[in-house]
Write a structure and sequence with these properties.
alpha/beta, Rossmann fold, TIM Barrel, 6-stranded parallel β-sheet, 18 helices, binds cobalamin, binds iron/sulfur cluster
Length: 491
């Protein structure tokens, strides 16, 4: 049933979880880049966040036009896994081979490979795995035998089923350290005009920017207890500055990017390299296109010189994971490996360099009390970033937080959809800390931070408020309605 060349549809399933911004899905871009570089020219991206048609409609139309897709690959973080299964059901019912990959599949492969609509599950970084799978699929002629072919046993990072239905989890694929050799994402496949700018309230940035994202390193050696990083892992691997600059040039010159976001787990782990990258952006005159740090920087790998270089290199805004205003919670519960002094210094230096700032704060970690959450709100008010992201703690599978809640707490979330960090509901209770208290302190933090007279007055003076008045009114309305999508990203 598989003819050459194979037609491949790579999908990010639709989501109501994150509806304030629409970013390109770099993981799908990387997979498509690897396929194109390895002789699979017929690849289409379908990002549910920006498409008008459902995957079922796309598949039906393709079949009607005698160009049916052979393989449908679906990507899923934990919050999208239910949508990913639904997409797999639609694709399988229409005769496509279904492959699922992404963070949730890496954490819980068994759950998905048990489902009849899921043919193959890819764990970890997928560029090499998907190419190896397609080589095997391309060799045999019936769908039944391809997805159960014994040759699949040689593919690292793959979970699959044998002909007699046994589930096989092959060995993990080691993390690649030669990131410079990974083919660049197939940026030309994104419908870029359908995406929004990367962060809200970015004064001077166009809400309809041609916004691309870039991954300059993968992995992070820190072990914050709430953080789920099954794909990129604990070993930091950086691309060379030259290799990053080549991609940056391509984004600016070939793709006419008007905004760029660095999405690394921790792009500034190596302070020297971070500074070199900024100097190279200045030298290559790439500093005319504004950029932001999406996932947040780690405060203890910064200094004033870095922020000044970032400003010169075109950076518009920096985000920091602050998490808690209580020393004990920060050190012993969140295990953030940073001090309050380092947090204050990072904000002070970033502001001195005239960068906009963003802070991420968590409410409801185990052991918290009204007093510790109050300290967090006080710290947010003191640091006074341009944008504050208050999140209720969410226990993602595999994290230390998840293990603790499993052992000592009561979990309120019953489906994977419930794990959205930006939901306004507490996900668990540990000890005396009630859901009602966490939710109250979280709502209060938003209200006290965003509706201070001094902040409202400042916003009225910002160009962005007036240039994008309808969008701002829409954001405010959503806040008052208590909808679950909040501004910003995560840190
Ligand atoms: C940028 C980013 C975002 C962006 C854009 C997301 C997007 N569309 O890509 C925004 C800000 C919108 C976002 C939102 C959220 N995010 Co986010 N995000 C990231 C971040 C920082 C980078 C993603 C990235 O580009 N990675 C690099 C690429 C190369 O990796 P990748 O996408 O995982 O893809 C690789 C593999 O997973 C695999 N793969 C992926 N899909 C598939 C499919 C197939 C078929 C195959 C074979 C392989 C495969 O191959 C790819 C290439 O190696 C990651 C952290 C990280 N470093 O990954 C968090 C991360 C993915 N996000 C996370 C979370 C929790 C969220 C939110 C739920 C937060 C919230 N608001 O509540 C939302 C969910 C939104 C949504 N609908 O997905 C978690 C996910 C944890 C989990 N267990 O699922 C991560 C891992 C951060 C963390 N450490 O906690 N996020
Ligand atoms: S939150 Fe950031 S610093 Fe902490 S482990 Fe995750 S990626 Fe690393």
């Amino acid at each position: 049933m598989v003819n050459s060349p194979m037609r491949i549809l790579l999908v990010s399933p639709d989501s109501k979880v994150w509806n304030s911004r629409a970013h390109i899905h770099n993981g799908l871009g990387y997979l498509a880049g690897a396929l194109l570089a390895n002789g699979y020219p017929d690849v289409t991206l379908h990002d549910g966040a920006v498409e008008d048609q459902s995957v079922a409609q796309v598949l039906d139309r393709a079949r009607a036009e005698s160009r049916a897709y052979d393989v449908v690959g679906v990507s899923a973080p934990t919050v999208l896994i239910e949508n990913a299964w639904a997409t797999a059901r639609d694709a399988h019912a229409r005769g496509a081979i279904t492959i699922l990959g992404g963070p949730h599949l890496t954490l819980q492969p068994d759950e998905s490979i048990q489902k009849p609509e899921v043919d193959l599950v890819v764990r970890g970084e997928g560029e090499e795995t998907i190419v190896e799978i397609l080589r095997v699929l391309g060799k045999v002629n019936s769908q039944q035998s391809t997805v159960n072919s014994p040759e699949l046993a040689n593919i690292l990072g793959l979970s699959w089923r044998t002909v007699d239905g046994r589930v096989m989890h092959n060995l993990d694929r080691p993390l690649r350290s030669d990131l410079d050799n990974i083919p660049l994402p197939a940026y030309h496949l994104f419908k870029i005009e359908r995406y929004t700018n990367l962060q809200p309230l970015t004064d001077g940035l166009d809400p309809h920017a041609r916004a691309y994202t870039i991954v300059t390193s993968r992995g992070c050696p820190y072990k914050c207890t709430y953080c789920s990083k099954p794909i990129t892992g604990d070993t930091w691997r950086g691309r060379s500055v030259e290799n990053v600059i080549t991609e940056w040039q391509m984004l600016v010159q070939d793709f006419r990017a008007t905004e760029i976001g660095i999405t690394d787990d921790i792009w500034n782990l190596d302070l020297k390299r971070a500074k070199e990258l900024c100097r190279a952006l200045i030298d290559e005159k790439l500093n005319t296109v504004p950029w932001v740090t999406i996932h947040g920087m780690k405060v203890n790998h910064t200094d004033l010189e870095l922020f000044e270089l970032m400003k010169k290199a075109g950076c518009k805004r920096v985000g920091f994971g602050v998490e808690s205003g209580d020393e004990y919670i920060l050190k012993r519960v969140v295990k953030k490996s940073q001090t309050m002094e380092q947090v204050r210094a990072a904000f002070k230096n970033a502001k001195a360099a005239r960068l906009q700032t963003m802070g991420f704060f968590i409410y409801g970690m185990p052991g918290e009390t009204e007093a510790t959450m109050e300290k967090t709100t006080q710290l947010a008010l003191e640091l006074d970033p341009d944008l504050a992201n208050f999140m209720i703690a969410a226990p993602f599978p595999g994290t230390e937080l998840w293990k603790l809640v499993e052992k000592q707490g009561i979990l309120f979330s019953h489906t994977w959809d419930d794990y959205a960090i930006h939901s306004d509901k507490a996900h668990f209770q540990v000890g005396d800390l009630t859901a009602e208290l966490v939710e109250r302190k979280w709502h209060e933090a938003y209200r006290r931070f965003y509706f201070r007279p001094s902040r409202l007055a400042r916003r009225l003076l910002m160009r962005d408020t007036w240039l994008n008045a309808p969008q701002r009114a829409h954001d405010a309305l959503r806040f008052f309605r208590g909808a679950n999508a909040r501004a910003g990203a995560h840190g």
